[in-house]
């Protein structure tokens, strides 16, 4: 956004490969954790839309550092995830009841402390639609989170900030005492993504968690005021969403290109390009690509 | 507020065979197809919401009347189209649904009293509204909620009129498609307005197969088939298997696209068209599962929508709308016809024995010898050069020193050919090296400096009598010794310029100018007289010797200006030379009177396209339009340039088509041969030649062409007919950036708005927006960058553009009076154009930039993030330096947190030689600088060391301010010291990055700094200029901040201010206009901000605001013009 455009390969992309993370997004969670100390009291963590699993990698590493022996981490996604140490992987749709029941079975010792959701649709380029689908994803993740979270639990979700962001914000505010928008420095400034960090879950009295998605998680509360309507209409926004930029100033700038030498010289294995830590297991479009490739070979 | 959006076309729909409507942002545009004119443009959804779909339905009792349904987000607009002759939209209802609408449908009641509008929504719901035909009142009827639990991405409704059933297809995020079939009677109004449907009341079916979100579902008009596409990038066609109920089975899966597909449409004769993300429309034959046709007429990425129409003559029209804000209309028959007229054939070259000596025996490709391997006494000949004489005959010479004439023609369905050996030499000295035509013959230059001339008359006869197989060719051969200085490296003739009518009328004697290039930097100009009646060469006379300034220079291209007898030559190092034969000099040796470094590599072709404009193409892949001033000084100026081929390519040949005035360009990249249409600015065809040798030639006539290329021992001929692939109609805008625009500059100029836009598609476009007609047309595409263009800055004379890969280019303004291409579009006869002067890379050296595409470097290339043209009259006392004359001074900020001062120098002795000279570079911040602005201090505050202030912001919310005074260009380090000494850094202005910055001087000499940040805030700060400060330290004192407590709901990415109003805009698509007000209480004047207007824009990814008088332009994915005053 603004005057920045995307460079496909930045410093975090390279660092993730060096340090064995499956995606550069790992640094976003690390920086969010740095700011909010998400895993201080956490033992049970659920990572929704987890593929390829970089966030679960971070969670597992952080909980080990904090010496949580009995920690349970569950990663859920529609797509396959390669096994991660200390993480239970469930393949399933988060909007379906059996998946949620399987998740709940994993936690014998009660409820979940932190629910993470880094899911995003493939962006189409028309941001209106992207933002809408993304807010749908957040709301269904919230739906699952209301099942799982303990009182006072934390929910972190990726959001594409746009016209209707404050609609999502006010819905989240119904369920959480403290909702903050955060942008880690490892998230590019050219991207419209940010993260809702919602702390202090308290289930409102009227709310009975259900998996019937169409019974909108907060529709009873906000229907009268129709918050998302107000936000996109001509009047200026009156709610100011708290915003935090996280990651300290010593970290790398995602919008900058760094010389390879500077970072690699201290590393003995100076290689020109590292292979990906975890190649996509089963991308939706892999058949299309494979067919194209074989067609090229035969002609 | 008047707004006009030029950007992605998101929906398109035919109203009749004469009218088309398409949606561009929030505007619904009515286009008259036959006149190519926009007849109406209006907003139909409230608050400027983007339109996602348009459909029209015929009203049963009145075939002239149409109902047009337009939807976007949660809104549906219902309009009548009154007449098909003079269509006008008359809105009768505006519906707000409770969820996002994915499809709408229209059902008429039996008694014609009212009709129903069905809106398929996310969450597998369908809302029904009834509209009374007479009172035009719209009423909510019912909401049908189907049981399913998945996020919806797409939906489509089909109404079966005979069985009175409705089928709703819902595409899910996971790739499932759910079908619900229900009775029409369910749509009757009930007491309970919400109707939860169970599995009993509706029949449902789950279609499994896709993976990833289902982007689009389309019903065939009969309802028997359903086409779907998803993230797995295939199209699945589902066929109804029973007449009753809802049973669909997968019929076929169509593969081809590796990019996502946004829209589908069934076409007649079992075909389907898909609009794809990669900018290509593909048409499949469903029966044989093959993608037969690709339509590639759009710039950049993303074709969003497609629509079709079958007229009363049963011809099918197709329309597509794309992200480059253009729509194209095709006739399906035309596209298909092109498909049938395509032919490709491979001829084996005659095999020759290597050991043969003097005999002229050869085998006319005896197939039994085709398999002879290497090492035997036979070896395959390979073609060194090919020239077409006409569609049916070509000349080739091979590496075995043979010159053949080949006749190729089509007899019935079969292709036939004859081969004739014209000439064969054993001696390598006599080997052919170059070839050209004159009107009556072929000239062949040999290794020893001899030129052979073959008469064309026999070839002409041969072509006429080709059916007689026993016809024997006898070529009359003439020769003359053209040079004794070695081989004839190149040979040109003045005839080549208009070579299309090769074998035409007779004349008695022909005079030709021929030019022979020798390896020692000379070109011999011969005058040749041909006796036509006897078909012999009458006279050859040396006129002049044109000398290259370097001894080892080699001319590789030339064109002859017949009016002035000027010769324009290009050499192997990309230089252009102009020679003029002077009357008063006795010596035949001519030296160039003008030279210009135009290209960076060998110039391959030069060609006149107008009296004073010629084109040049080079191995570096660039095509230049050059202006030749032919009156006094015979100078050449590069007007504009274009990278026609997507990859790095060689521009090889120009083709002129005299019948429909087309002009084409042939180029190579790796093994592909591409033909590019210069006038239409698009690719005509790209052919995979396999492992090619450099021996292609193309022959072209109005609607067909033959391509010839070779592999070892083979000659491949390809015949294509391409006339019909042009779309029959285009939108008047003629295309825009197909990708995001990173920066724009808008200036008012004689009643039109001149717009310079820098796109992520590596182009800078110079275009004009007419404030009367509200149409935009493109003047010029500046295409020299190798990555997305980030920013531009302009002053009276110069345009600077900077891009990723640390590239900085300067362009000079030129006023061209007669523009050959676009003058009909613009009311004014003169317009400003820009032509490239110099290019500068910050971190790439010259060798890297030449093959940038392949090179892996360990040094990071930075982006140029912003540019400021500095007022050089204030900062520099003396323009003339020992190294040149300083023309312009630019301040460059880059993504590694450094800034640089660059100057444009003109070399003192050699005029027209320009260099971008880096004065100095300085690292100020460890974070990327994203934006900058400058401010000239009021005169009362200016001192020698303090003339202007420069402001810049970075990604961690810091504002950096420097003051800059007079510079001593011979000692730039002193300036660096001053720069670093005299800076102010204000931290924590914003949380996160500051995206844009604008500075303005208020009336009381206070400075207003407006910043827009990632933290959703637009902040403005007031600074006071401290006049008492006499020391060399900054003079800014912060007064106070104006931080509004309301505003945007997403990051603010563009701001602008003039000291009275502030515009701010960002990712929430809102443009807020703030007024700066002063109030005085207690004798103290207070300044505060007041939001005065909010406009929702259709530009996403907003990057920049530019203002010119009453007009404001917002750039991002598209441009929106607003009349804000």
Automatic annotation (TrEMBL), chain A:
SUPFAM superfamilies: S-adenosyl-L-methionine-dependent methyltransferases (SSF53335). GO terms for biological process: cytoplasmic translation; rRNA processing; tRNA nucleoside ribose methylation. The active site is at 158 (proton acceptor). Its main location: cytoplasm. GO terms for cellular component: cytoplasm. Residues 21-201 form the Ribosomal RNA methyltransferase FtsJ domain. It comes from the Eukaryota. Pfam families: FtsJ. It catalyses: cytidine(32)/guanosine(34) in tRNA + 2 S-adenosyl-L-methionine = 2'-O-methylcytidine(32)/2'-O-methylguanosine(34) in tRNA + 2 S-adenosyl-L-homocysteine + 2 H(+). Keywords: Cytoplasm, Methyltransferase, rRNA processing, S-adenosyl-L-methionine, Transferase, tRNA processing. One of its GO terms (molecular function) is tRNA (guanosine(34)-2'-O)-methyltransferase activity. Gene3D superfamilies: Vaccinia Virus protein VP39. The keyword Protein biosynthesis does not apply. InterPro entries: RNA_methyltr_E_TRM7 (IPR028590), RNA_methyltr_RlmE (IPR050082), RNA_MeTrfase_FtsJ_dom (IPR002877), rRNA-MeTfrase_E (IPR015507), SAM-dependent_MTases_sf (IPR029063). S-adenosyl-L-methionine binds at residues 53, 55, 77, 93, 118. It is found in: Cytoplasm. Its EC number is 2.1.1.205. Belongs to the class I-like SAM-binding methyltransferase superfamily. RNA methyltransferase RlmE family. TRM7 subfamily. HAMAP family: RNA_methyltr_E (MF_01547), RNA_methyltr_E_TRM7 (MF_03162). Methylates the 2'-O-ribose of nucleotides at positions 32 and 34 of the tRNA anticodon loop of substrate tRNAs. This is Putative tRNA (cytidine(32)/guanosine(34)-2'-O)-methyltransferase. It comes from Galdieria sulphuraria (Red alga).
UniProtKB/TrEMBL annotation, chain B:
Transmembrane segments: none annotated. InterPro entries: tRNA_Anticodon_Mtase-Reg, WD40/YVTN_repeat-like_dom_sf, WD40_repeat_CS, WD40_repeat_dom_sf, WD40_rpt. GO terms for biological process: tRNA methylation. It is found in: Cytoplasm. GO terms for cellular component: cytoplasm. Gene3D superfamilies: YVTN repeat-like/Quinoprotein amine dehydrogenase. WD repeats lie at residues 207-248. Its main location: cytoplasm. Keywords: Cytoplasm, Repeat, tRNA processing, WD repeat. Belongs to the WD repeat WDR6 family. This is Transducin family protein / WD-40 repeat family protein. It comes from Galdieria sulphuraria.
């Amino acid at each position: 956004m603004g005057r920045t455009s995307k460079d496909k390969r930045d410093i975090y992309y390279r660092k993730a490969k060096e340090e064995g993370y499956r995606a550069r997004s790992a640094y976003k969670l690390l920086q969010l954790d740095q700011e909010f100390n998400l895993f201080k009291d956490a033992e049970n963590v659920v990572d929704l839309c987890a593929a390829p699993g970089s966030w679960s990698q971070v969670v597992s590493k952080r909980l080990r550092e904090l010496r949580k022996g009995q920690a349970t981490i569950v990663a859920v996604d529609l797509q396959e995830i390669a096994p991660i140490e200390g993480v239970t992987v469930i393949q399933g749709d988060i909007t379906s009841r059996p998946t949620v029941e399987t998740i709940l079975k994993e936690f014998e010792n009660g409820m979940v402390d932190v629910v993470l959701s880094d899911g995003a649709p493939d962006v189409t380029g028309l941001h209106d639609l992207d933002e809408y689908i993304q807010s749908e994803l957040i709301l269904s993740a919230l739906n699952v989170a209301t099942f799982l979270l303990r009182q006072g639990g934390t929910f972190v979700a990726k959001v594409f900030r746009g016209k209707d962001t404050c609609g999502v914000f006010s819905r989240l505010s119904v369920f959480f005492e403290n909702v903050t928008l955060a942008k880690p420095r490892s998230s590019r400034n050219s991207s419209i993504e940010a993260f809702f960090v919602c702390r202090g879950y308290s289930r409102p009295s009227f709310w009975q968690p259900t998996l019937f998605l169409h019974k909108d998680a907060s529709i009873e509360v906000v229907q009268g005021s129709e918050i998302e309507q107000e936000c996109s209409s001509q009047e200026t926004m009156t709610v100011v969403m708290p915003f935090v930029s996280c990651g300290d100033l010593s970290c790398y700038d995602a919008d900058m290109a760094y010389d390879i030498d500077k970072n690699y010289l201290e590393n003995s294995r100076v290689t020109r390009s590292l292979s990906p830590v975890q190649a996509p297991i089963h991308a939706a479009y892999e058949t299309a690509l494979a067919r194209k490739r074989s067609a090229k070979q035969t002609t | 507020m008047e707004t006009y959006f030029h950007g992605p076309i998101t929906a398109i729909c035919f109203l009749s065979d004469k009218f088309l409507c398409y949606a561009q942002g929030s505007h619904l545009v009515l286009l008259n197809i036959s006149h190519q004119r926009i007849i109406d443009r209006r907003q139909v959804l409230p608050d400027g919401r983007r339109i996602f779909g348009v459909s029209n339905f015929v009203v049963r009792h009145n075939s002239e009347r149409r109902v047009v349904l337009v939807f976007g987000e949660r809104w549906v607009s219902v309009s009548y189209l009154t007449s098909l002759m003079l269509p006008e939209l008359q809105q009768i209802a505006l519906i707000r649904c409770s969820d996002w609408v994915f499809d709408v449908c229209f059902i008429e009641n039996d008694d014609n009293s009212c009709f129903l509008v069905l809106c398929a929504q996310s969450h597998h719901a369908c809302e029904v509204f009834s509209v009374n035909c007479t009172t035009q009142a719209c009423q909510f009827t019912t909401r049908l909620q189907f049981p399913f639990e998945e996020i919806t991405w797409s939906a489509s409704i089909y109404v079966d009129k005979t069985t009175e059933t409705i089928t709703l297809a819902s595409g899910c995020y996971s790739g499932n498609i759910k079908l619900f079939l229900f009775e029409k009677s369910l749509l009757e109004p009930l007491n309970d307005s919400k109707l939860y449907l169970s599995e009993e009341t509706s029949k449902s079916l789950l279609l499994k197969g896709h993976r990833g979100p289902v982007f689009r579902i389309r019903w065939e008009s009969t309802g028997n088939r359903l086409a779907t596409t998803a993230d797995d990038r295939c199209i699945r066609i589902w066929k109804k298997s029973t007449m009753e109920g809802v049973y669909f089975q997968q019929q076929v899966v169509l593969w081809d696209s590796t990019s996502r597909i946004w829209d589908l449409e069934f076409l007649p004769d079992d075909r389907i068209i898909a609009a794809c993300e990669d900018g290509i429309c593909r048409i499949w034959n469903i029966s044989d599962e093959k993608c037969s046709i690709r339509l590639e007429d759009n710039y950049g990425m993303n074709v969003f929508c497609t629509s079709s129409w079958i007229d009363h003559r049963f011809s099918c029209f197709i329309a597509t709308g794309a992200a480059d804000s253009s729509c194209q209309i095709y006739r399906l028959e035309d596209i298909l016809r092109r498909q049938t007229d395509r032919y490709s054939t491979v001829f084996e070259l005659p095999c020759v024995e290597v050991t043969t000596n003097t005999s002229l025996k050869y085998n006319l490709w005896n197939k039994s010898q085709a398999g002879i391997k290497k090492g035997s006494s036979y070896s395959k000949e390979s073609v060194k050069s090919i020239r077409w004489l006409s569609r049916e005959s070509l000349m080739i010479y091979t590496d075995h020193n043979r010159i053949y004439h080949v006749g190729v023609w089509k007899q019935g369905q079969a292709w036939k050919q004859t081969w004739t050996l014209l000439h064969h030499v054993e001696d390598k000295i006599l080997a052919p090296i170059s070839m050209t035509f004159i009107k009556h013959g072929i000239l062949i230059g040999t290794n020893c400096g001899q030129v052979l001339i073959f008469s064309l008359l026999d070839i002409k006869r041969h072509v006429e009598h080709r059916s007689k197989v026993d016809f024997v060719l006898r070529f009359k051969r003439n020769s003359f010794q053209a040079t004794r200085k070695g081989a004839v490296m190149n040979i040109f003739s003045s005839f080549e310029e208009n070579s299309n009518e090769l074998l035409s009328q007779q004349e008695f004697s022909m005079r030709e100018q021929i030019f022979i290039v020798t390896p020692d930097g000379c070109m011999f100009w011969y005058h040749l007289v041909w006796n036509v009646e006897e078909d012999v060469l009458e006279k050859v006379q040396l006129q002049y010797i044109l000398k290259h300034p370097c001894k080892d220079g080699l001319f590789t291209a030339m064109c002859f200006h017949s009016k002035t007898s000027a010769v324009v030559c290009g050499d192997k190092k990309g230089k252009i030379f102009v020679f003029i034969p002077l009357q008063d000099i006795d010596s035949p040796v001519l030296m160039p009177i003008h030279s210009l470094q135009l290209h960076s590599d060998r110039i391959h072709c030069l060609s006149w396209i107008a009296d004073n404009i010629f084109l040049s193409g080079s191995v570096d892949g660039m095509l230049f339009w050059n202006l030749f001033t032919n009156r006094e000084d015979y100078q050449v100026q590069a007007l504009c340039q274009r990278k026609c081929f997507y990859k790095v390519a060689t521009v090889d040949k120009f083709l002129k088509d005299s019948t429909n005035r087309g002009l084409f360009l042939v180029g190579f990249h790796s093994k592909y041969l591409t033909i590019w249409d210069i006038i239409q600015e698009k690719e005509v065809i790209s052919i995979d030649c396999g492992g090619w040798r450099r021996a292609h030639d193309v022959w072209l006539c109005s609607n067909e062409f033959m391509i010839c290329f070779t592999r070892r021992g083979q000659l491949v001929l390809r015949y294509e007919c391409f006339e019909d692939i042009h779309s029959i109609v285009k939108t008047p805008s003629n295309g825009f950036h197909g990708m995001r625009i990173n920066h724009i500059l808008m200036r008012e100029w004689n009643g039109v708005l001149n717009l310079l836009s820098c796109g992520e598609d590596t182009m800078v476009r110079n275009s004009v927006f007419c404030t009367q007609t509200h149409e935009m047309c493109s003047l010029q595409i500046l295409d020299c960058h190798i990555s997305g263009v980030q920013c531009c800055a302009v002053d009276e004379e110069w345009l600077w553009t900077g891009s990723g890969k640390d590239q900085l280019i300067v362009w000079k303004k030129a006023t061209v009076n007669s523009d050959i291409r676009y003058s009909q579009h613009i009311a004014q006869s003169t317009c400003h154009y820009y032509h490239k002067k110099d290019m500068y890379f910050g971190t790439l050296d010259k060798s890297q930039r030449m093959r940038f595409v392949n090179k892996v470097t360990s040094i990071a290339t930075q982006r140029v993030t912003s540019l400021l043209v500095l007022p050089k009259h204030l900062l520099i006392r003396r323009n003339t330096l020992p190294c040149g004359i300083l023309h312009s001074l630019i301040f460059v900020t880059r993504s590694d947190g450094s800034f640089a001062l660059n100057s444009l120098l003109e070399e003192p002795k050699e005029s027209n030689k320009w260099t971008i000279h880096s004065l100095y570079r300085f690292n100020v911040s460890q974070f990327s600088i994203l934006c900058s602005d400058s401010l000239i201090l009021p005169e009362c505050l200016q001192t020698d060391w303090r003339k202007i202030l420069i402001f810049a912001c970075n990604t961690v919310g810091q504002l950096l301010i420097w003051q800059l005074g007079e510079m001593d260009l011979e000692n730039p380090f002193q300036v660096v010291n001053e720069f670093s000494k005299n800076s102010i850094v204000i931290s924590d202005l914003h949380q996160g990055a500051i995206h844009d910055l604008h500075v303005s001087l208020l009336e009381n000499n206070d400075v207003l700094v407006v910043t827009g940040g990632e933290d959703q805030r637009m902040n403005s700060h007031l600074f006071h200029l401290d006049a008492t400060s006499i020391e060399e330290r900054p003079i800014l004192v912060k007064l106070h901040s104006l931080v509004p407590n309301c505003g945007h709901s997403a990051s603010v990415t563009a701001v602008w201010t003039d000291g009275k109003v502030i515009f701010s805009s960002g990712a929430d698509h809102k443009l807020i206009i703030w007024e700066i007000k002063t109030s005085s209480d207690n004798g103290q004047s207070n300044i505060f901000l007041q939001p005065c207007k909010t406009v929702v824009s259709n530009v996403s990814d907003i990057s920049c605001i530019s203002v010119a008088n009453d007009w404001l332009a917002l750039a991002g994915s598209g441009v929106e013009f607003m009349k804000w005053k």
